[in-house]
Every structure is written in structure tokens, then in C-alpha cells.
Amino acid sequence: MYDLTGFQRDLLYVIAGLEEPHGLAIKEELEAYYEKEIHHGRLYPNLDTLVEKGLVDKGQRDRRTNYYTLTRRGRREIKARDEWEAEYIPEDFEA
Asked: Which terminal Cβ of the chain has fewer Cβ within 10 Å, N or C?
């Protein structure tokens, strides 16, 4: 996951947290988090990159709507990232 941008990592986490989300659902989640509009020209090329890297699968719900799911590799990458973060942020960490 070291070669992903922060935005791409956030995409992975949103996809992991939703059940077969479509692009618009992912976009809405990220807009709520970032508190600003996410343009299609940013969203879909980054989703395609995650598909190309084998981290996300893209399926087709109908002719206009695709959905996204994590691959096994994508789940492993999130787990590895969580373990790496845990090395630096103790469980009892308080902000």
C-alpha cells in the first residue's frame, strides 16, 4: 500500500466499509469526510488504478452502474497497513 496516494487509501477504506458500493456512494462518503466536492475526473481514474493494481474488483450492476469490492489482496493490504500503524500508535492513544 506504500505506493498508493492518500486518496487511493481512503478509497480502499470506504469500499471496505460499504457493501458493493457504486461510484456515487463512494463519492458521497468521501465528500462527507473531506468536506468538499470530489470530481468524477479524480474519483474514477483512481478507482481504475486500484482495479489495475489488483486491490479492487469492479462489477456491473446495470449498463450505467458499476460496483466495487475489495479483492483478497486489497483486504490483506488494509490489514498490513493497520498492523503497521499499530506499531506507532498505541491502543491507549488519546488525541
From this structure: C
Mean pLDDT of the chain: 95
Which contacts of 36-43 are long-range, i.e. CB under 8 A and separated by 24 or more positions? 42/7
Per-residue confidence at 8, pLDDT binned at 50, 70, 90?
A: very high
Cα-based distances in Å from 4 to 8, 32, 39, 95: 6, 21, 19, 26
pLDDT at 92: 86
**Which one, of 37, 50, 62, lies nearest residue 11 by Cα?**
50
The structure's pTM equals 0.90
Angstrom distance (rounded) from CA 31 to CA 56? 20
